[in-house]
Structure formats: structure tokens, C-alpha cells
Amino acid sequence: MIIDCHGHYTTAPPALAAWRDRQIAGLADPALAPSRAGLRIGDDELRETIEANQLRLMDERGIDLTVFSPRASFMAHHIGDFRTSAEWAAICNELCHRVSLLYPERFVPAAMLPQSPGADPATCIPELVRCVEEYGAVAVNLNPDPSGGHWTAPPLTDRSWYPVYEKMAEYGIPAMIHVSTSVNPAFHTTGAHYLNADTTAFMQLVQGDLFADFPDLRLVIPHGGGAVPYHWGRFRGLAMALGKPPLEEHVLGNVFFDTCVYHQPGADLLFDVLPARNILFASEMVGAVRDIDPCSGHHFDDTRRYTEAAGLSAADLAAVQEHNARAVYPRLDALLKRQGR
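C-alpha cells predicted for Amidohydrolase family protein:
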């Protein structure tokens, strides 16, 4: 199998964005606030958006299954308060669940959390529980910066995050560390904020000792790890200066990276620097980079091409494309086994 661990519902029906606009308007004027019942999206609308986009590309590129979560830039945790985020997360998670019901062998849900600046992360737990127990979510997306580019949250190693990690450990689910929209004009959302966050999250984990408290916790850092592979020597040296064990012992038993790197030299570097067991295939297709690369004639996000041209052994390629995801996402592995795969 080829498992894409990083997919978002970026093509959701327009009614979803329209409802969100009304929700935001309702923050200033409660009379404008929409009701949950006012959002009506039929199964045929879901099929149309999926079959013309993600599913079509999956079939063209030979991808068997995608771990599917709400659109990252739409999480926008900085808007409103916890109640705003809770209502929005519930709606978005339900749509991804419905997609997984329509295409049970092609999409498996992962949940966004109802985070909000300054809110106790433990407030996210009811939605996490609901998504795992009712929707069969195999992972969550965890935003290390709910403020939208101002970085007011404590580092991921802070004990305030521990209730979320405890629940993740209980369910055996990983988190993808994924920020949302930047409202800081200094940081472009997908070109700077996303990659900055990947790099920042990794350094926070190097500085701390989170995995001493949670030895089975699994975190996926997307977009190839931001600057991490390119500056691996810097991180090794910083770990030494901080008195930490070698990175292979300190973080690589718990931290994984995806292949959302959109050119061959970058993908080659990722595979050359990091152990194959720490890399999971992903594309984030129909995401931030949707165009065709004029240098190759193929879509930038057709990451299968880069992975298969990187010179991996057959065993390492199979690990990256399937087996690592099954190990990092044990609930996904269990589901696949129930399906006979």
C-alpha cells in the first residue's frame, strides 16, 4: 500500500466557508450568528468535491489511502474564543468523518482540536475523545501556536499540554504538529509560518525532556521538518551544548517527518539525513502548492515521484510508503487489518 499521512479537506463545499463567515460576523453581532442546523451539505456535494479533486489525484498517482483532516488554514484558532473554536472544530471534523464513511477504504479521519489562545489545552479533550470514539479518528492535529503567528503559547514540552498527551497515550494516537493561518504580516502562512513552526516545534522538543515522561508519545512534524534536515548538524551541536543525549536517542524514537517537500533535491536531502524509519510518505495534495512545476512537468505536490526516485532500498521504500505509517498510527493499522489489508 501507499499511505498518505497528510491530507486536508481543502476542497470542502463553499457552504462551509460561508457558514464560517457568518460565525465570525456573529462575534461582533450575535444576531448574525448561524445555527449548526443551518449548515446543510449533502453527500452528493461531498462526493463531487472529493471525486474531482483528492480522489482523482490519488488514483492518478497510485495512492491507496489518505489520513484526512480539516483544512489547516481554516482551523484559525485565533478567531473568537474556545466556544467559537469548539463549534467550528465539531463541524469540520464531522465533514471529514462523513468523507471517510463515503470512501471507507480511501480516507481515514484525523481531528482538529478546538484550541484557543490562552485556553487550557485540556479543554480540547472532549472533542478528541468524541472524534476517536465516534468517528474513528486515528490522529489529531496539534497547533503549537493558536495565536496565529504571535507565539503566545508555552512550548510543547510545558506541562500544560500534558493532559492532551495523556489522552493521546491512552488512545495510542499520534499528533501532527500543524499550525494554522498567520495573522502576523511578518509571516506568510504557508511559506513562512508553517515551516517556522515545524522548525520551532523540533527545537522545543530538543530543549525539553518530554519523552522521558511520555515514552510512547508519537509526534509527526510535517513539511519535511522545515529546516530540520538541512540544519541537522546545528541541531546535533545544540543538543550537545544543552547536555542532551544524541538526537537519535533523545527525539528520534518519538518524532517523525513527512515527505511534503516539493522538489527532488529537497526530498533527497530528507532521505539522506534522516533514518528511513522516521519518514512517512505524505503529499498534502491540493494544498499550499497546487501548480505544475515547469522544470519537471509534474505537480509540485506529486511527492511519490520524489520518493521513488530517491534511491531507497526496496525495504526502506516500503517502510516510508506504508509500514512506518502503520507503526506510528496503530489505530490506522488496526482498521486496515479489519479491512483485510
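The radius of gyration is 19 Å.
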